[in-house]
Amino acid sequence: PIGPDWRRGxxxxxxxxxxxxxxxxxxxxxxxxxxxxxxxxxxxxIRHRPAAHLVxxxxxxxxxxxxxxxxxxxxxxxRSFKQQAKIHCAYCNEAYFQTRPPRDGPDQxxxxxxxWLFFPFHRMYLYFYERILGDLxxxxxxxxxxxxxxxxxxxxxxxxxxxxCSVLYDKLRNDDHRPPNLVDLNDxxxxxxxxxxxxxxxxxxxxxxxxxxxxxxxxxMVSNGNKPTSFHGKKYRAGCRSALDDECKPEPGGxxxxxxxxxxVHKFVGSKRSPDSPYNEDMGNFYSAGRDPLFYAHHANVDxxxxxxxxxxxxxxxxxxxxxWLNSSFLFxxxxxxxxxxxxxxxxxxxxxxxxxxxxxxxxxxxxx
Length: 369
Ligand code: C2O
Description:
Layout: E1 13-17, E2 20-25, E3 35-37, E4 47-49, H1 57-72, H2 81-92, H3 118-136, H4 191-196, H5 206-223, H6 228-232, H7 256-269, H8 294-309, H9 323-326, E5 329-333, E6 339-343, H10 350-353, E7 355-357
Parallel strand pairs: 3-6, 4-7
Antiparallel strand pairs: 1-2, 5-6
Helix pairs in contact: 1-3, 3-8, 5-7, 7-8
The structure holds CU-O-CU linkage (C2O).
């Protein structure tokens, strides 16, 4: 199973522009030698992550206070906003080696995108992030919000992130895409096929944009995401004997949501290219995406999609049972600054982790193209 080789340390990461390396970035966490195994929390009640466009003023106050405290931590504190942002960069941009292959197979760096690691890695990342935020305000029940981009009223950037005076704001975003502009969940991949079905994309009116987004959601979640590999992404294993083996290459291929709505939202939020943002920082490039507070709300909705997907009918709509997947592991600092090793198998059921999502309508379920 895949995991970072902590003993071999962390190296500089490589920022990419499309498929080309463009610069190296330092994304390593503070050093630490003792690793403890993650244990599931004792769950007394389920906490519900709210939709970001529906939260009230008390919630926003608490959330902003927590973010403010996270941003105020010293840079070398593993719980600080900067260090937390680097986690994404390190795991995405090859800062770690994979645990050494058992036979003398080729040495590999680790990447968590565009494979079956996508959903579980990001779920863990958010889980520890949320616990840190809760701890910083002394509220063990704290939950982070999700950006409900799969529903008409959630399709613009949530207002709470768009206020330039808020700690939730990030100036490296595309100004043309502030609210009330709606996100376009089509990232180009699906366009041709949809055109054939008579769904046109250019200069959409607001209602057409909503309809188009809902159809895309239906396709990504229902018609095309009907198998574990098509939804989660392709298999990615450690310890293959040959570099030619397809299942051990990094980024073998993402699933419908990762490739579709997920990427589309990253591109929608990230800045246009400029001297301050040559590579579409922050959200528009993986190495910098974690620097935008909106990243975590975006990924909470991605996480919610995984959770919804498991409840849709279809006998193949269930998680892998492959041991290589279940035992893949990643390291995170928890709210007490312990370095924790978490395994995919511990992160399949969100109720066991103590959270769920606010129930909101799921209009794309009725949006068969
Ligand atoms: Cu790790 Cu949305 O990317």
